[in-house]
Amino acid sequence: MFKHILKQIWKNRKANGWIFAELVLVTAILWQITDVTYVDIKTYNSPLGYDIENVWFFLLENLNENAPGYINETDGAEDLIRLREQIVQHPMVEGACLAFFSSPYSFGNSWTSLYPINGDTVAASQKSFQVRRVSPEYFDVFRIKDTDGNPIAPQLADSDKPLVISQDMEQLFFPNEKGKGKKVSQNRTEELPVVAVCNPIREDDYKKSEPCFYQCMKGNNLRGYIQMFGNTSIELSVRMKKQFTQEEMNNLLSEMGDRLTANNLYVYSAKEIKEQRKVIIGWKQDETKKQNAIVSFVLINVFFGIVGTFWLRTQSRKEEIGLRVALGSSKQGIRYYLYGEGLCLLALTIPFTLIYIGNLLYFDVPDTYRVPYSALRFLITFGGTYLLIGSMIILGIYLPARKAAQMQPAEALKHE
Amino acid sequence: MYKQYFKQALQSIRENPLVSSISIAGTAFSIAMIMVVVMIFQIKSANYAPETKRDRMLYIQGTQVTAKNESNRNRGNMSSEVVRECFYSLQSAEAVTAIFSMNKPISLPGKRMFNLYSIKYTDAGFWDVFDFKFINGKPFSKEDFSSGIAAAVVSETMAKEVFGTTDVVGKTCILDFTEYTIRGVVTPVSRAAQEAFADLWIPYTSKNSLVSINNSLENMAGVFSTCILAKKRADFEQIKEELAKRTAAYNAGKKENVVDFLNNPISKLDIAMGSNGFNKKPIKDFLVQTGSILLFLLFVPALNLTGVIQSSVQKRQAEIGVRKAFGATSQKILSQVLWENLILTLIGMAIGTILSFLFLIIGKSFLLTAETQLNFDMLFKPGLFIAALLFTGLLNLFSAGIPALYISKKKITDTLSQE
Fold first, then answer.
1. Which domain holds residue A142?
2. Between chains, do A305 and B115 touch, taking CB under 8 Å as contact?
């Protein structure tokens, strides 16, 4: 039967040629979009390494010089440290931490070089790494655990300038060894202790985890950083004990009153990190929607093309179909025959698609950085593409096939 | 003769309603998608209130301060000093404004509130560059600005939310613990008009930290972006030259750093084509990118339609053979097939145009921004319909061209032999 179908397709090549060219084109494009979507979904669903649920940015400002209550001589760093402590004492607050351009979904970031002492210095010397400058409470507020699942904050106690590195960095710096207890250096003069290794950290939902590290700011070190960057460019992240809406949060803030002021420094409002997340990953989600629009366009066109071609085909082949029915083909048989022809046409595109995929892989076009290429990825994206187009073809043949099957042999053969 | 084609086309629709409606639907989808691409471009560069003079505006979004020995480079925005020295002094511009946006809560005297509103710290020129409709009062004045008076203009929305009324001229609201007197109330504007949108507009001179001298980077880096309104489009080059001159003179007075505006100033047309203040996107790249999307949107349905038309032409080859035998030239046959098909495509275009508005409304949030308010002037432009016609013509040529050529070139004997 298969051979017979092939023969038929070849005989009707003039009409089939166009729909076949279309199928070749759309399978290639659809496969590419499926592959991108696969990588996006896979990345999106892997763990971020932190948790922003119920964490809010408390937004800070200093009093204008001519505002009532302005104090001339104050220590901005002390004010900030005191403000944090006042906020933590509120019964609805679980914890609060300070960070400079280092909170999840913050708009800024800092990068620096870092070298392992007695580790793989070659790997490290080629890159700069994202550094997150944070106060010790950060790991509790964002629920970041070490690779054994233990809390990190208690491990920071014994050092003045403790560093926490991510698992990716551990593997890069100290392959096949434990990172905890090792030393690293930023400028090759001062050695800093690695006190813990945290789970891989991803910058946002669509990015892969990268080697990175946390520099914990304590005591005078913290004061120095606040003086350097200014006390309003800090991110004051506050984890609440329960979920709040913006309105409930506004009410809570007005209830907190004086707690939100320390000399000239005050909290002017609060924004849930989830809201900022929407801004940061919004463009990517818009891209995805545009891709979906293209996919729908392609599928609708496949449907139209198949309906049109096969409708005309069943008309021009009335005699042949009539003959088949007359010779004992069942209605079901006729229908299957037509479906077989459509799917066979699709199957003929497989070599072209494989060549296309091979080419793209050779030139490294698919995203193999975020998700490595694997047999599973090939099966899912390739199978998914053909499943989608195949179902469109079956949908498109349904009408013409029903019509053909309903044909009475006498009527069909009348043409002869 | 054309009447004949029209009759023929109608007849073929009647004869084969399913196939015809599929051709029409295919055309409609393709034209609708293409129109959406064209409309997005159009909207991104269109004039609409309060940015009614977009076509005459130049934007400076991004400033660079570089050390003269090139050891250090800082990218961000400009200080109020740069605004004053390089922009307020521009003679060739009709108006200039400097803007800094921030979200802050607005409170009432004696009642501290935390709900965030969009605040624009700006100058008196703002009201000349943008077209606001005042329902009460008037803008803050040049004098208010130069003496740093805490005066404000508020949006109708914010007035209703905070005061419960729009009759608020002369009343006081509190921002950053400073009392601002309300001078005017304006009708709300679309959030999509990024440069103009706010709930509260105040002179930036009323906030010390925005005008005080900052010793790092010789007081050149800051928070402001600027908009320049030209008297006419043709003045853009002159303004750019004058700005370059002013900037050079300003830089000459500095010891260690120089300021420049990267790819700025840019127009909304540049922005719609994918440029921004930091990077210029060559027009060629834009054309290649948009062109390939449009081609794809044309090509896929064209393949569909070609298949269908090929079949129907083949079915009619006996008729065409007879016409030829009675003296019709190949050219005549060619144009007959193209014209007949054009009628189907034109029906598709009409449906596609309506469909495109529907698509745009449905996909607005991810194609543009959720806040964009679509209006009649923005969408119905002659260019849009010329584009629609052009692409319909192209689609027709792509899809009917090959079958028409095929049948018109076929020998009479071959076409008749099948009978």
1. 71-263
2. no
